[in-house]
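Severity: low
Component: inverse-folding endpoint
Summary: output formatting inconsistent between runs
Steps to reproduce: submit the following structure tokens with default settings.
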């Protein structure tokens, strides 16, 4: 790897988001009239890459889009955000699509069609690997691609972060390849359930013991995001709560991605972990005050 080192290399999904604003989330069998419809760039990988870039980090991305107008649109976003995207392949698939309903009170429901994201292979990742201070991935691309990504990442001096979202058992296989895990409460519950035969006994259990079940020789810290309650940073010896400011919520879409991207950018910059988590909680609190994912990612205030 003779290339210039980036602060952050993101391996993940790139989607077109179709966002419908609705009075409430539909019940089974219910038809609702949307009050507004928007076509927006998204995907957890792209969201997190943009969130980091807007913090001033130098960011590169690995992923895949389709040979269609949606793929061209997403490449234009990468260009506009100054994210290096030579590692984003153009494949003979549809670009990934997310159908997002956003209720008037800010909650959302999302259905994803992976498209080109599901065709990202280990060989494509291997060919596109680049040096970085921090490596960040999520679970919207195939598991073999993520094994290649974290397995090929330089071990010395680089931090490997997995955001285990959307919730899937695939993350268990990656825990020995990462240094930091970021999950919400539901994702933590699902991962911890795989460590016991009696999953019902975990219902209502506190985050800390669940998170500690996941620690490995490499994975030393778990951050649990808690929405309006902020986050908790948990390792073998400490459980540090990070409070979130009280804000008026418009749309929670992308708030978790904002958190992950900002944490990664802050750590690449050299912030201590707790300081990075505080910075990320504040950024995510800003993001929920605007509609959409990428459109809501805040830019760093350096004043």
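Observed output (run 2 of 3):
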């Amino acid at each position: 790897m003779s290339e210039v080192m980036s602060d952050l290399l993101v391996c993940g999904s790139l989607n077109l988001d179709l966002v419908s604003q609705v009075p409430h989330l539909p019940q089974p069998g219910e038809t609702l009239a949307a009050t507004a419809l928007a076509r927006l760039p998204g995907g957890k990988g792209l969201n997190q890459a943009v969130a980091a870039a807007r913090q001033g980090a130098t960011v590169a991305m690995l992923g895949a889009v389709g040979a269609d107008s949606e793929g061209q649109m997403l490449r234009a976003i990468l260009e506009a955000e100054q994210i290096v995207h030579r590692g984003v392949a153009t494949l003979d698939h549809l670009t990934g699509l997310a159908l997002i309903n956003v209720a008037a009170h800010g909650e959302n429901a999302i259905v994803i069609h992976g498209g080109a994201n599901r065709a990202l292979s280990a060989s494509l990742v291997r060919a596109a690997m680049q040096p970085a201070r921090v490596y960040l991935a999520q679970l919207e691309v195939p598991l073999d691609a993520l094994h290649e990504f974290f397995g090929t990442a330089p071990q010395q001096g680089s931090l490997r972060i997995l955001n285990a979202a959307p919730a899937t058992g695939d993350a268990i296989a990656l825990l020995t390849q990462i240094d930091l895990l970021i999950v919400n409460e539901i994702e933590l519950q699902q991962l911890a359930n795989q460590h016991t035969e009696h999953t019902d006994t975990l219902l209502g259990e506190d985050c800390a013991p669940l998170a500690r079940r996941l620690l490995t020789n490499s994975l030393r810290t778990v951050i649990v995001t808690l929405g309006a309650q902020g986050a908790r940073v948990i390792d073998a010896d400490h459980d540090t709560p990070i409070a979130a400011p009280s804000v008026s919520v418009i749309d929670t879409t992308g708030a978790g991605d904002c958190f992950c991207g900002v944490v990664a950018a802050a750590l690449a910059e050299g912030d201590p972990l707790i300081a990075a988590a505080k910075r990320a909680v504040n950024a995510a609190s800003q993001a929920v005050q605007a509609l959409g994912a990428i459109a809501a990612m805040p830019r760093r205030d350096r004043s």
